[in-house]
Design brief:
The protein is an alpha/beta fold and 293 residues long. It is built from 13 helices and eight strands. Helix 1 crosses helix 2, helix 9 packs antiparallel against helix 10 and helix 12 packs across helix 13.
Length: 293
């Protein structure tokens, strides 16, 4: 297992749009010190489609240098092009990451057997763990149960990050012998209930210790405590619903003083109303004091 709570880390940018590696390192340190067992670099939350290969590789190296001795470092190397995904995986393997997040190929809508062939080719480039990312809301194609079973037969496919609410699908991942990670923060507790190991989280950027406490409480058999923490974290889930990820979480991090900068197009800054909604969620979480009237 790569850890119970992995954070899908944002990519900070400087005012001129360049990747801010020093701010990234500082954020890695913050996450390692605040509940994260691992860091997923260049995933959706990291604005991976807008990054060059060299920028990706610099981020992997920075994460390893900063927290690799304490946290697992997972590289998001899946794209819609298999050959490119293999190249990214090979280079990230050389850099020394601990595993890889491979999303269902997006835009080109492959058949189910194409998904399996895609992951097989990527998995052949490394002997380290592959986490398959099932997120039909972004990629359109839904990985079917038979596809998950076929992926489980690939020796180094070890886990699934499931970003769809189906508990039946989640149970199937566990029954197939794979580690189950919730890809949606509001699914972490329900997925623990069907045998999941934890979550690959966005809100762990700001409430990592509480999420780790929830997972630990559940595993210790204190379901009431875990449920109470889950209820307390509703404002964090509401925050993510303000606007497309990672707009809301980067806005929250900037409000909290982490200085992660802006976005690369086609993502855009939060509007004033959206920023106010994010601020309100942070106030409800007790992370910001209410603005005086």
């Amino acid at each position: 297992m790569l850890g119970a709570l992995l954070t899908a880390i944002v990519t900070p940018f400087k005012p001129d749009g360049a990747v801010d590696v020093e701010s990234f390192r500082a954020l890695c340190r913050h996450l390692a010190d605040n509940g994260s067992d691992g860091i997923v670099v260049t995933g959706t939350t990291g604005e991976a489609p807008t990054l060059s290969d060299d920028e990706r590789f610099a981020l992997y190296q920075a994460a390893i240098d900063e927290v690799g001795a304490e946290c697992s470092v997972i590289a998001g190397t899946g794209t819609y092009a298999t050959a490119h995904s293999v190249h990214l995986t090979e280079r990230a393997h050389e850099i020394g990451v601990d595993g890889f997040l491979v999303v269902t190929p997006y835009y080109n809508k492959p058949p189910q057997r194409g998904i399996v062939a895609h992951v097989e080719a990527i998995a052949a480039a490394t002997d380290r763990p592959i986490v398959f990312y099932d997120i039909p809301g972004r990629v359109v194609v839904d990985a079917e149960p038979e596809t998950i079973s076929a992926l489980a037969a690939i020796p180094n496919v070890r886990a699934v990050k499931q970003s769809k609410p189906s508990l039946d699908a989640a149970r199937h991942v566990v029954a197939a012998g794979l580690d189950l990670y919730a890809g949606d923060d509001d699914a972490i507790l329900p997925f623990l209930g069907v045998g999941g190991v934890g979550g690959i989280s966005v809100v762990a950027h700001i409430v990592g210790p509480r999420l780790q406490e929830m997972i630990t409480s559940y595993r210790a058999g204190d379901l009431a405590a875990a449920s109470a923490i889950n209820d307390d974290l509703v404002p964090a889930i509401d925050l993510l619903r303000v606007q497309t990820n990672p707009i809301a979480i980067k806005t929250a991090l900037n409000l909290l003083g982490h200085g992660v900068g802006g976005f690369r197009l086609p993502l855009v800054e939060a509007t004033s109303d959206e920023e106010a909604a994010v601020r309100a969620c942070l106030e409800r979480l007790g992370l910001l004091q209410p603005v005086a009237a």
